[in-house]
Design brief:
The complex is a heterodimer of chains A (120) and B (568). Chain A is an alpha+beta fold. Chain A contains five helices and four strands, in the order αβαβαββαα. Chain B is rod-shaped and about 205 Å long. The termini of chain B are far apart. Classes of the chains: A alpha+beta (120), B alpha/beta (568).
């Protein structure tokens, strides 16, 4: 698994990142999450990400199928492993660490990673 | 309870209840769990919380047509289905029939990164979707506390829990929430703070290497409920709780009489036998014939075409059958006809509750009209006197409630007070037959007497109990100048009396003959005298005749003389 992840990181610049954001209706928290995510994605990923917003209020069955509990939840389904981030994504640093997307800035990565682990 | 929907406007509606269908639980909660509210089921690991919850859902779906949602936080539905399959529940099948909705909530803290504000709306959406999909009336959250390990923001969690319980209540879903027991608290996360309508505590303890499960209703707001600790069991048919005693003493009674299987004993009981549905205690010392007496009852029961269940803690079926044949009781023929059921197991095989449950289940399946337990005293080897007493109390209660005639055999060990039972159940029984040995003149003889028999004028006699090849016979013991005698002493005394009687008879005969002879002698004497009298009479007549003749002759002479003198 680790080896696979590494190999993917090596060629990360070419990779597409699949993100799915689960919200429940147009609540302020959902809206905040969307705008926060767009901000982060814009900064760090440019055009490499693919974002899908899933409104569980419209598609309730998906909550069970995708194992969603907290709202909002951001799921990175690609590259594997799957990562889940919950909350309104206001803690940018943690989102970046959680999604493991800071490819362009290797100098900050170890620090961020350590911080992320301690945080959990 | 639930049926009293709206009695009248001015009267306060009593708390409505949802029956669980779990044997015994509805009885001690007087109707079930609070309808439309949440009940916490707490206890340590492996105490049966999940079982209770699943049974609540399954029985709800199957027996009460109330679909249920099972939201599992710890086990996947596949695991759970496998676990409960051994208890006879097919939850996957129910799920396919849309009577049950299974949702496994996977919580893994290592996968989740918290980045700011969130709530658990996803959980609510899932629950709502589940409830709406099948029109659920019942919900079970197994073990919802797992969420506490999945999320780190306690403030959010507590708020969401409060919201969850309110949400369930608003939708009038009867819910069971299972929770792990905490250290010194009912639940580890203090769930009882949010839900305070009904709390059920389960306990699983081991005593003397025998496990015992117990259930207690810690709290049930707004209703009466049994406050004791109730033993319960989980077996291949699910959970069953045994109320220590039913809250009421109101079982139906029958005045029908059934023969005891021993005609002489029937005679001692007004000539009719036991009351149907009564409980009979057969107590006595070793070898006094208790089992034979019990087997006679079994025989009589089967002879009427009724079923009899014989629970044996001492002998195997074959052994009993063989032994009873020697006194002319053929139990095998009844067994073949499906009327006699002999169930034997060791008293140490399990705890008292399990024994009771096993008997309970046998009664449920076999539906006997008579149950014999031989001997109840052996149960003490598996647990304490107190537990056995409480178990027998419940057993008697069960038998009485079903109108089953019960015979409990109790062994009185040497040195014990004869008129007492080891487990103190004599006061619970209706008829008490005491068997004892009388040791006299180098013999031990069996004696039987009816110590008590409620509701009938029973014999006060002590009868000698003999076993013949044609069954039990009760011989009135010799009671006379020689005291109470049994066995050969009785026979000797009877022989002695017989010969004395014979002597007396001969004497009378002799006297009678003597008198007759005297009478004959006198009659002869009378005849002789009469003969003598007659001869005397004859003589007197003769004298008179001679005198008359002389006078005649004298007159003739005188006349002759006068003629010759020519007198005149």
């Amino acid at each position: 698994m680790a080896a696979k992840t590494n190999s993917k990181k090596d060629s990360a610049s070419a990779e597409i990142i699949d993100l799915r954001l689960y919200v429940a209706g147009q609540t302020p928290r959902s809206l905040a999450a969307i705008s926060n995510l767009k901000k982060i994605c814009g900064e760090d990923l440019g055009s490499r990400y693919r974002l899908e917003v899933v409104d569980l209020a419209k598609n309730p069955a998906l909550a069970r199928d995708h194992q969603i509990l907290a709202i909002p939840t951001l799921v990175r389904s690609l590259p594997v492993p799957i990562r889940k981030i919950i909350g309104d994504l206001s803690d940018t640093e943690r989102v970046v660490v959680g999604l493991d997307i800071r490819d362009g800035k290797p100098d900050k990565r170890p620090a961020g990673g350590t911080k992320g682990k301690n945080g959990r | 309870m639930a049926k009293k929907a709206k009695p009248s406007a001015r009267e306060l509606t009593p708390l409505q209840k949802t029956p669980t269908g779990i044997p015994g639980l509805d009885e001690i909660t007087s109707g079930g769990l609070p309808k439309g509210r949440t009940t916490i089921v707490c206890g340590g690991p492996g105490c049966g919380k999940t079982m209770l919850g699943i049974e609540f859902l399954v029985r709800g779906a199957v027996e009460f047509n109330e679909p249920g949602v099972l939201m599992a936080f710890e086990e996947t539905p596949e695991d759970m289905a496998r676990n409960v399959a051994s208890l006879g529940f097919d939850i996957q099948d129910l799920a396919d029939k849309k009577k049950l909705y299974l949702d496994y909530v996977y919580v893994d803290p290592s996968e989740i990164q918290e980045t700011g504000d969130y709530d658990l709306e996803g959980l609510f959406i899932r629950l709502q979707n589940a409830v709406e999909t099948i029109g659920a009336k019942r919900v079970m959250l197994d073990t919802v506390e797992a969420l506490f390990s999945g999320f780190s923001n306690m403030g959010v969690l507590r708020a969401e829990f409060r919201r969850l319980f309110r949400w369930l209540k608003d939708r009038e879903l009867t819910t069971i929430v299972t929770a792990e027991r905490g250290d010194g608290t009912l639940t580890r996360q203090g769930l009882e703070e949010y839900v305070s309508d009904c709390v059920i505590l389960l306990d699983h303890r081991i005593k003397d290497q025998i496990s015992a499960r117990r259930l207690r209703i810690v709290k049930y707001r707004g209703t009466k409920h049994g406050a004791d600790e109730y033993p319960f069991l989980i077996d291949e048919r699910g959970m069953s709780i045994l109320p220590v005693t039913s809250l009421l003493l109101d079982h139906q009674v029958s005045s029908e009489r059934i023969p005891t299987g021993v005609p002489d004993l029937d005679e001692m009981l007004e000539g009719k036998g036991y009351f149907r549905g009564s409980t009979i205690l057969l107590s006595g010392t070793a070898g006094s014939g208790k089992t034979t007496l019990a087997a006679s009852l079994a025989d009589a029961t089967c002879r009427r075409g009724e079923r009899c269940l014989f629970i044996d803690f001492e002998e195997s079926s074959k052994q009993v059958a063989r032994n009873m044949k020697s006194v002319g009781i053929d139990l095998d023929q009844w067994a073949r006809k499906g009327l006699f059921f002999h169930e034997a197991w060791r008293p140490t095989q399990f705890g008292t509750e399990m024994h009771l449950l096993r008997i309970h289940k046998l009664i449920d399946t076999l539906k006997p009209s008579c149950v014999i337990v031989d001997p109840v005293t052996n149960l003490v080897s598996a647990s304490s006197d107190k537990e056995v007493h409480s178990m027998l109390l419940r057993l008697i209660d069960l038998l009485k409630n079903r109108g089953i005639t019960g015979a409990l055999v109790s062994l009185t060990s040497g040195g014990d007070n004869l008129e007492g039972t080891h487990v103190g159940i004599s006061s619970l029984t209706d008829t008490w037959i005491l068997l004892r040995d009388i040791e006299l003149n180098g013999e031990r003889n069996r004696c039987l007497y009816v110590l008590k028999s409620r509701g009938m004028a029973h014999s006060n006699q002590l009868r000698e109990f003999t076993m013949t090849s044609k069954g039990i016979r009760l011989v009135p013991a010799y009671i006379g100048s020689g005291g109470v005698l049994t066995g050969s002493a009785r026979l000797a005394q009877e022989a002695k009396e017989k010969s004395a009687e014979r002597l007396r008879e001969q004497e009378t005969q002799r006297k009678r003959q003597e008198i007759d002879q005297k009478r004959l002698a006198l009659q002869a004497q009378i005849a002789a005298l009469q003969a003598e009298f007659a001869s005397v009479e004859q003589e007197a007549e003769q004298v008179r005749n001679q005198e008359e003749q002389r006078l005649e002759e004298l007159k003739l002479d005188r006349d002759g003389m006068a003629r010759s003198r020519r007198a005149n």
